Amino acid sequence: MSANQAYNVCMDREMRFCETRDGVRVAFTPPVGDGDGRPLLAVSGWACNVEFELRHPKGEQFYDALARGRPIAWVIPRGVGSSQREIPELSIEALVSDVEAVAERLGWQSFDLWAEGTGTLAITAFAERYPEKVSRLVLWSASANWAFSKPGWIVSLRGLMQSKWWLARRMLGNICFPSGPIELYEWFVEIVGESISPEMAVRYLDFQASTDITALLRRVQAPVMLLHRRGDHVTPIAAGRAIAALLPNARFVALDGDIAFPYFGDTSYIDAVRQFLDEEGASGLVTRPEGMTGREGEVLRLVAAGRSNRQIAEELCISVNTADRHVSNILTKTGASNRAEAASFAVRHRLAE
């Protein structure tokens, strides 16, 4: 029995379809979940998607937990899974139109967003464009661009996708599950083969390598929670911290482990995610003092958590001198005379828990 067949004991969920403004047929799941909380629209990435993730018991349990207290639906992006495989365009505009089409079909006027992988690019751009629709965002393993990756690695992976798709999938499996376990690695390798064609995988790889959403990050008004595993080999944690430093209202949560998928490994953070999503839009807004940068906001959160300047430097991958300068600026901008007063300021103004 193959890894995929072993997990098909989980019932496949019904898929529905809608058409985007450029005529692409996009698949999505009908809303599930209990309670009357704000709806949550989740957007998959290309390397495995929720349509196949739900076949695995861990994936099903995780997303069911996420749906507790609120309706949730999942978008399968163009070119992937049950969505239209042959597509005319792959761009930020195109992926935003996938989200637009599903939200319109569901009739949701205001909702939260969750995404992983390339889905994080789509929902961040959507939130910047439609601030009146989006209350909160949760980004898993996000990056603004692929500046962290070596061009030679992308060229090698691209070549394998074109010539030896089976080997490219194994290479991706090693990156996503660097420490195993072997059964999840084998499951992933098989599922990716079902989820996307090698030709479309190349298009998504090229799209990611050439896309940069840095310019729009400062214009995202909604509160954002960023989740990132410290040992992530797909997207280094420093790339996630870089996004958090640019977003006006971000909470960055560093998690232990190296598995690239949110529903494997330790998933105890799901309670924090639900708590974040349950906060009211207005009351959850963070107001930084005038002139305080996103990076200083991140440093202030670490000060409030009791970190020393050296620990802050290590956490944010900056020099101790830079951390010292940020803390000095924070004391000036908050009117605090010491770190304890700065921490108190952070809690009062919802800049820290």
Q: Could you please describe the fold and organization of this structure?
A:
It is a single chain. With 353 residues, this protein is α/β, with parallel strands linked by helices. The chain has two domains: 3-145 and 211-278, 3-Layer(aba) Sandwich (Rossmann fold), CATH 3.40.50; 294-348, Arc Repressor Mutant, subunit A, CATH 1.10.10.10. 47% of the residues lie in helices and 12% in strands. The chain has an eight-stranded mixed β-sheet with strand order 1-2-4-3-5-6-7-8, with helices on both faces. Helix 6 runs antiparallel to helix 9 (198-210), helix 7 (165-176) packs across helix 8 and helix 11 crosses helix 13. The chain is globular, with a radius of gyration of 20 Å.
